[in-house]
Amino acid sequence: MTTLGERVKTERRARGWSQAELARRVTRAGYQITQGGIAQIERRGETEPKSIVQLAQALGVSVNWLQSTRGEKTAGVTADDLQLSLLPSVRRGQAGARPAASPEPRQQLQVFASAQGGDEGALTLSNEPVAWLPRDARLEGVEEAYGCFVSGDSMEPAYEKGNILLVNPRAPVNPGDDVVFMREDKSGTRYVLVKRLVRRNESSWTVKQYNPPKTFTLPRKEWRKAHLVIGKYNRAS
Q1: What is the rounded CA–CA span in Å between residue 216 and residue 201?
Q2: pLDDT (tens digit, 9 = 90+) per residue, 58-114?
Q3: How does the average pLDDT of the chain come out, rounded?
Q4: Using alpha carbons only, how large is the chain's radius of gyration in Å?
Q5: CB of 82 closer than 8 Å to CB of 236
Q6: 143-148 mean pLDDT
Q7: What are the DSSP E strand ranges found in 20-87?
Q8: CATH number of 53's domain
Q9: Which residues, at least 6 apart from 100, have a Cβ–Cβ distance to it below 8 Å?
Q10: Where are the alpha helices (DSSP H) in 163-215?
Q11: Domain carrying residue 224
Q12: How many distinct structural domains can be found in the chain?
């Protein structure tokens, strides 16, 4: 099974479910997804992180395994591991979910989805949170702190698909730090790169990645924000 879509199809068929039945079970959990959305995921072979969480919950498998085949297949997808509760974030017509809105819990950490979609391997970052997690003690009092799903593989093995980065936008960044670099275009789309900071000057960031090994520069006039990665959750289940 080489793609996420194939894993979804195999697990669905192993349970004797049609695409419509899987969609019904996802919807019954409080989200919205259609049979056509399931078909699209199985055919296309991928989907956005928030939909992976919802499919894993319905299928009873680990989010990490469903996304990357790593870790235990049935490691658990309930709220017990990270006390994960999903919030609305997708537009109508996307293959995903749309649970009912709820107030932002001040003691919890907002988590954004990411997806491949920019130049230089940049990821697009959702404008609305897709989940809330218990706030790490190191982020207490940092209201701007956030989590971010990893969907690329350029920083493996340090960060793998399915990990959730814990980010402190207030903290200064220094050479040797892992950093979320961010730029925003005129439409409001946010692009991010997760890299190790090597050095910096007034005009550029020099960064490196692990997979494949590469060192390059980012112009600071474009990549104006540099947010410190303080840690990660290994899986979202």
Answers
A1: 13
A2: 888 877 678 777 767 764 433 333 333 333 332 223 333 333 333 344 568 898 887
A3: 79
A4: 18
A5: yes
A6: 93
A7: 85-86
A8: 2.10.109.10
A9: 30, 88
A10: none
A11: 4-233
A12: 1
